[in-house]
Amino acid sequence: MAGSLFDTSAMEKPRILILGGTTEARELASRLAADERYDTAISLAGRTADPKPQPVKTRIGGFGGTDGLARFLHDEKIALLVDATHPFAARISHNATEAAERTGTRLFALRRPEWQTEPGDRWTSVESVAEAVDALGAVPRRVFLAIGRQEAFHFEAAPQHSYIIRSVDPVTPPLNLPDQQAILATGPFAEADEAALFQARKIDVIVAKNSGGSATYGKIAAARRLGIEVIMVERRKPADVPTVGRCDEALDLIAHWLAPA
Ligand code: NAP
Q1: How far apart are CA 15 and CA 174, in angstroms?
Q2: Residue range 220-240, pLDDT digits in tens
């Protein structure tokens, strides 16, 4: 096929498309890159200005909703779609479920398990970032915001607080908040470094998403150690698709589903 993302000289190999943007997606892509049985590509939304290079063929940018994704799956003859997007990237996961069903494409999700509370944790669980804003309360606090940049605007509703906002890329447009400092950084973040940061900045509350995984768990462990409250934005109920939590399980499922008859 002219202009195909995939290897047109290897049509007999089942094509796998990974919806990425996470550490797990990269890890799965690098394991599949070395596997001659499949022809694998990854798709990124294009949110990060300077994304890390991927170990397989890469396309960047939205598909154009469910219709666009369904068209892509059909035109590229995708045998298997792996939704390895971030647990909070709800729209693309919804689109993946619909498009896979419409085109009869096999689909599973690779989704890291949620973090669970441990003794010493002081979590306030909320259902959305907007609810996290309310949970900060009326009294001014020193807030560490670690929810990514896309939903940071919600905190403009609570200008009484002092904010340290950490994100991979700058928040755009800049937030209209009187007391804010930005930290631009990409994980992983070690617990000891997080604890030192929280102490240096006199942080008394952290707002985080229950993303799971080890790369950003340092802040949760550091908060426990220092007795700092965490306002935890919990995940919405995931769609009803087969789901695995680890890369090894994903590889087993792929081998099982795509094994030659
Ligand atoms: P989202 O709200 O679920 O998706 C918004 C739109 O972005 C989708 O409708 C789709 O556009 C496009 N899109 C998302 N992921 C894509 C992918 N892997 N390949 C191609 N298009 C994609 O997603 P989001 O929360 O903006 O997150 C965007 C990306 O950042 C995701 O890939 C996710 O894995 C990653 N990420 C998100 C978070 C988070 O907290 N939300 C954190 C870390 C990483 P079309 O409808 O045009 O196809």
Answers
A1: 41
A2: 999 999 999 999 999 987 778
